[in-house]
Every structure is written in C-alpha cells, then in structure tokens.
Design goal:
- The protein is an alpha/beta fold.
- Helix content is 34%, strand content 16%.
- The strands form 4 sheets. The chain has a 10-stranded mixed beta sheet with strand order 9-8-7-6-10-1-11-12-2-13, sandwiched between helices. Strands 15-16-17-18 form a 4-stranded antiparallel beta sheet, sandwiched between helices. The chain has a two-stranded parallel sheet with strand order 3-14.
- A hairpin with a 2-residue loop joins strand 16 and strand 17.
- Helix 5 packs parallel to helix 7.
- It is globular.
Length: 481
C-alpha cells in the first residue's frame, strides 16, 4: 500500500513538474518572440566640429578614443560620408529633417539675423522625433540644439518628449553664473543648476534616460557640444595630456570618449545592445580654431572643400549589421532619417519628402555601389556638388573649380579647362538642384561672409589663406592699405 501511495505522489509531482516546464518554456518563448519583434532603439551621437582624422578608427595616432573605436569596430566605418552643411545649425537642420535644409530656407548659420529675428525651423517641417513619437517611441534630445529659440522651435514642440540641454550653438563647459535663456542648461524649459563638466553631465543623462526607458523603444538625439570652442577641459585631463601638442583637444576628446563608453556599457548591462541602432558622426568638418585635423582632406569647417563636410561616420547595430566593415560608398547624414524608418519598419507618410536613402541594404550586401550618385551643398555665396567621384566647388561672382577625388583627394588640380564635358554637366546639375530651393530666410554677418569668401577663393587658387576671422581680416587689410 505504501508503495502505491508513494508511486501516486511521484506521478502527480511529475505531472506538476512537466506542466511547469511547459509553462515556463512557453513563457520564455513568448518573451523571446516579443523581444525579437520589439522595435529597435535609435541613438544618434552627434558631436561638434570634430576633425575627419581625429579618432583612432580614422587613423589618429595622438588622440585616444578607445570606446569610440570599439563602437566603430562593432559596426561599419564610412569613409566617404558627408553632412549637408559645413557649419553647425544648417547641418543639424538637414539631419533632423532628412532633407536638404535649403528647401525650407535654413541655409545660413545660426537661426535668424537682425532683420528676421529668431526664425529657426519652419513650423511646417517634420522632424525625426515627430515621426518616431507618432509611432510609439519615447523621444529624447540631449545637449546642443541650435535649431531655434522661439517657443515653436523648442525641442518639446518639435517631437521630443524630453529635452535636457541648451538652445545656443556654443557655451562654457562649466557652470555659468547668470546664463541667458539660450545658454542655460535646461530640462523641458526649466533651468538646471549643475556642477562639474558639461560632457559628463550629458553622458550621465544619456545613461539615466536609457535606464528609465529600457522597456520601451526610444529615439535618442545625443548632441554633444564637444569639441566645439571654448576649448575647456577638466583639470585632471589637462594634467593627463600636459605634454600633448594638442593638449586641450586631447583632453576634451578623452572626456567625450569616456561618456560614450558609459552609454555603451549601459546598453550592454541592460541587454539592449543588440536591439539598438547607433549612429556616430560630427556635424561638420574640423574647425580652424580647435586644433582639429582633417588630413588628408582640403579645407575645414565653413567651406565647401572635403574637409568642411566629409565627416567620420559610424553605424552600429549588433547582430543585425556585420561588424568590422568599411564602406566607401557616397553617403550622407540625410540618410539617417530614411535608414531609421526602415530599421523600425515605419512606413513613410506619402506627404513626407526625404532626400536620404536607406543605407541598410548596402550594409547587409543586398545592394552594391553608391547610395548616392550626386550630393549638393550651398551656403549663401559658396556651393559645391559631388557627381560620382568628381567634385565641383563654386563661388559667386568668381566661378568654379573641378576635381577628380579618385586621383586628387586633396582637391589641388583644377580640371575645369581639360574635362569640359564632365565639368559643364556638373555645373548644370548644381544649377538644376539650386532651382528647386527657396531663397535663404536669413544671412550671416557681412564680415563673416567676407572672411568665408576669402578662404574659398584662396583655396580654389591653392594659395595661402591670409585670415580666418574678422579681427584678423581687419589687421591684414589695414596693412595692405
């Protein structure tokens, strides 16, 4: 009898065990299935005024960027990627809207002038945040905005649920005693008093928001002001690089790298790494006043040579895009919007006009070649076009120069007189594109426009640039007179 009872109890326990195992398996399967179908998180890490050659993965030997290198190694390094403008504000306008910013009059730097007031983004233009918020994403903007200071231009009114940053294009990395509205660090319009170093503050907030939104898909626009001037760094890092030829830039870059490392570690800790698509790029080429390097390119921030708009660019999506790739196809920051929509399986509204393309098929091997056959640039008096491997540079009331980048990446040999058919076709392509644009809604200060004009002309003539700011211009011109 005892044996029968024991057998019965054992049989019941076995049934309970099998039921629990089945239930657990089904639960795990359901959980994994849910995880597999969860939309990917999207993170854009946008840095400021960084040089094309100032990262280890781009060949730098003197600036330390181990975490950014790790990010690059986990994905695809682009060698012929460009932003849509060679200065901060219009470049950001193009990225966040996915279209040439000149289409809505955002052509000059800043967000208005003394005649127009602070116009910023057109009220009817759609941002990435607008679309992702509409499709169930939590949307977060961190850091530098520089797309308008009016109420209608505030990130919270341009699709972002959260904004932790500042409106202006440049400010101190340390606390300001009495900042104005544009300079102040804010959270959704309310001033934030902070201690420490701005790059650290933004890095900590990126971690905080990931932790808070780990269970929901999120779109994060992480816009560091590093390594834009003022050249300010933490004392400990200045000491670390006290014998470095580019001490302040090295220290600022190290802080940037540390904080990008924080973000990477948080994604990994929370098991979000494989379901997060990350973009890393600079808003334009290296600046003339922050010790950056664009070698082997010609030019720098503010002009239409390659050094002004060709930028370091990485896309990483662990287990979705093969790691360790280098991609040489002609690509643009305009592609980020379209690529992200495809990654999230969001159908583009038929009324939304985008100038970018989906890069994913090129990175998975489904498509070969160049995402773009042509790219164009214009800021007031200066313009440019990429037509395949050829590059056209234009200056109003001066003319054009024409280069073959396959054989002349440094843009030194003008082919406009020898490759006349290709040259004339490029000029026509540029003019046709310009015919689609609206008149710029504002301009830049005449002194700065004169400086930029001089730089362009000297670079087009392969001559030494005599001045790169209004103060120096006045000094040079007064001596010549």
């Amino acid at each position: 009898m005892k044996v029968k009872i024991a057998f019965s109890i054992a049989f019941v326990l076995l049934l309970v065990f099998l039921f629990n195992v089945k239930g657990t398996s089904e639960s795990l399967f359901a959980s994994n299935k849910k995880e597999a179908t969860k939309p990917p998180n999207i993170i854009i890490i946008l840095i400021d005024d960084a040089g094309y050659a100032d990262f280890g993965f781009m060949g730098s030997k003197d600036l330390e960027t181990p975490n950014i290198n790790k990010l690059a190694e986990s994905g695809v390094i682009f060698t012929d990627a460009h932003v849509s403008a060679s200065v901060c504000a219009p470049s950001r306008a193009g990225l966040i809207t996915g279209k040439y910013q000149q289409r809505f009059g955002f052509e000059a730097n800043n967000t208005g002038d003394e005649n127009t007031g602070d116009i910023g983004l057109s009220d009817d233009v759609i941002t990435m945040a607008d679309v992702f918020k509409k499709n169930g994403y939590k949307t977060i903007a961190l850091g530098k905005w520089h797309l308008g200071g009016d109420t209608s231009d505030h990130p919270n009114n341009r699709g972002f649920d959260e904004f932790y940053g500042f409106e202006t294009g440049s400010r101190s990395y340390f606390p300001i005693k009495n900042p104005n509205k544009k300079q102040m660090l804010q959270h959704n319009g309310k001033r934030v008093n902070f201690e420490g170093y701005m790059t650290d503050v933004l890095g900590d907030q990126s971690v905080k928001y990931i932790e808070e939104n780990k269970n929901n898909p999120f779109f994060m626009y992480l816009s560091y002001n590093a390594v834009h001037t003022p050249m300010e760094a933490k004392e400990a890092h200045l000491e670390k690089y006290k014998n470095h030829a580019r001490q302040k830039l090295a220290a600022m870059t190290w802080s940037l790298d540390e904080n990008i490392g924080k973000l990477q570690n948080t994604l990994k800790k929370l098991n979000l790494e494989e379901n997060t698509l990350i973009y890393f790029l600079s808003d334009n080429g290296g600046a003339a006043n922050n010790s950056s390097s664009v070698a082997p390119l010609k030019g720098w921030k503010g002009n239409k040579f390659e050094g002004g708009h060709r930028v370091p660019f990485v896309i990483s999506w662990v287990n979705k895009i093969q790691a360790g790739q280098t991609f040489s196809g002609l690509s643009s920051s305009l592609d980020i919007f379209t690529t992200s929509l495809a990654a999230a399986n969001i159908k583009k509204d038929t009324t939304l006009i985008l100038d970018g393309v989906n890069l994913l098929p090129y990175l998975t091997g489904e498509k070969k070649g160049n995402p773009h056959d042509k790219l164009f640039w214009r800021k007031l008096e200066e313009s440019a076009a990429r037509i395949g491997s050829c590059k056209l540079v234009g200056l109003e009331n001066y003319g054009y120069t024409f280069y073959n980048l396959d054989t002349d990446l440094g843009e030194t040999t003008d082919l406009s007189k020898t490759k006349t058919i290709a040259f004339n076709n490029a000029v026509n392509d540029l003019k046709n594109w310009e015919s689609q644009l609206m008149k710029p809604l504002w301009v830049e200060e005449r002194e700065w426009m004169d400086v930029t004009y001089h730089i362009h002309q000297m670079l087009m003539e392969n001559k030494k640039v005599l001045y790169d700011n209004p103060k120096k211009m006045k000094e040079v011109l007064s001596k010549n007179n």
